[in-house]
Amino acid sequence: MNSYRQTHRGSILQLAVFLVLTGFAGSMLAQDGSAFAPVYARDVAPILQQKCVSCHNPDGIGPMPLQTYQQVRPFAALIKDRTGKRMMPPWHNDPTTGIQQFKNDASLSEQQIATLAAWADGGAPEGDPANLPAPIQLLAGGAWHLAEELGPPDLIIKSRPYDVIANGQDQWWTPDVPFEGLESDRWLRAAEFKPSYPLGKKVVHHGHAVLQPADGGRAVALARYGVGKSWEMYPQGTGMLVPAGGNIAWNLHYFPVGIEGEDDVVEVGLWFYPEGQQPELVTNGESMFRVDGLNGMARGQDIIIPPHGYQVLQGTHVLQSPAVLHSFRPHMHMRGKVMTMTAIYPDGRREVLSQVNKYNHTWQIAYIYADEVKPILPRGTVLQFTTVFDNTANNPINPDPNQWVVFGRRGVDEMSHAWVGITYIDEEQYVQAIAQRRAYQETLSLN
Ligand code: HEC
Question: Predicted confidence band at 262 (pLDDT cuts at 50, 70, 90)?
Fold first, then answer.
């Protein structure tokens, strides 16, 4: 269970290498000790290709393309600024605490950040175009991301068309649509939420598609979306039961800033396990964990953030059975700054599992743990969540620090909860999972 310690050591090592590389004056040194002067073609383009152009292309959600020297050159200083502050790429996990291995890690290494900075400081030279990396194939704007790995979806469900008004304010669209296309109950393997292209990608802020089964049984959340989080794939052998038939309750939050359009339709692609195959572990997908005063208080009742002030809220949840965590996705609004998820084990030991310390409401990022490090928690573990709200003028996206802020669903009001991908397991499965983890750690220490 302590395998994340491993990664701390890794990042300290990385930091040491970085300090050696950058020297004290902030200029970079090459391995032979001579000054390293990064150029676009050889040093910068590969980083942008790997970490930026998936959004910064003419069809992507980034405001400007970053695919050629001519496009990138005018933004050199801004690129240094945004990457140096770790605002770009959008990945707001605290690199100094908690688990650091993720399936979807978008962050830059310290060394990449230093390269971009040294390049901008050095006058952003082009270098020899012969050293440019080979062009990469970008996913078409309307494509399913998961199709590359899983093939086309087994079933696609659609919302009803919505006319988007360009008023720059929150709009909600909550159509009910019959759920058709399944002949029998099936086990869900993966789901992807896809706003229309190109309109929806720019105006759908977040949403869910929840199945209300025909027999009146428990509702099943098929997909939850936020800018920065569009798909969910359960680990091999884990699935969610989807009853055939019922109604899909769509809950779509539009936030169109100056953009309008007609007939916007959102789609969700579903991938199932083969018919008749039942996965070993049953998950409910992402579950909501409140981070506010629980004890019988109505949700959000204790969110009261003073003007020019801060508020810290906590929520605790005792695990009634052992569990495996797959992902962590904090949800706050414009004053939200930090959310921490800590495990307090039955023996009293505490461990920070994840901390997002540069939260930005624009992005709803699910931090998806790598399989080798995902937390396996015994029954009785307390999951403790802590949020910090910043209503001061130091918060760059604070619309008005003079206001009191309370709970509400508009972006200018607040919320305080986490979506955690969680699978509850029984004691036997827990013992097995821990044994597997130990065996894995032993192979690491042998190498
Ligand atoms: C997941 C999509 C995504 C990725 C990946 C991404 N960006 Fe962005 N970028 C955006 C969006 C959207 C904005 C505008 C909104 C915002 O600032 O959050 C933006 C804004 C910026 C800005 C500020 C532009 C301005 O005019 O204010 C810079 C600079 C930038 N990105 C550089 C980068 C660099 C460099 C990388 C890679 C190291 C990167 N971005 C990766 C989506 C992305």
Answer: confident
User: In this structure, which topology does domain 286-431 adopt according to CATH?
Assistant: Jelly Rolls (2.60.120)
Find the Cα–Cα–Cα–Cα dihedral 103, 106, 110, 113, rounded to 10°. 160
Among protein residues, the one whose CA lies closest to atom 24 of ligand 1: 63
Using CB atoms within 10 Å of the CB of residue 399, give its burial: 0 to 12 exposed, 13 to 18 middle, 19+ buried.
Answer: exposed
User: 122-139: per-residue pLDDT in tens?
Assistant: 999 999 999 999 988 887
For ligand 1, say whether the CB of 205 is within 6 Å of any of its atoms: no
Q: How confident is the model at residue 164 (pLDDT cuts 50, 70, 90)?
A: confident
* Model confidence pLDDT, tens digit, residues 199-258: 777 778 778 899 999 888 888 888 888 777 788 888 888 999 999 999 999 998 887 767
Nearest CA to ligand 1 atom 42: 62
CATH number of 149-280: 2.60.120.230
Q: Is the CB of 82 under 6 A from ligand 1?
A: yes
Instruction: Give me 19's structure tokens.
Output: 């300090």
Ligand 1 neighbour 71 (Cβ under 6 A): no
Annotated domain spans of the chain: 7-131, 149-280, 286-431
Which residue from 40, 44, 49, 52 has its CB within 8 A of the most atoms of ligand 1, so it is best to mutate? 52
Answer whether 418's CB lies under 8 Å from 327's CB.
no
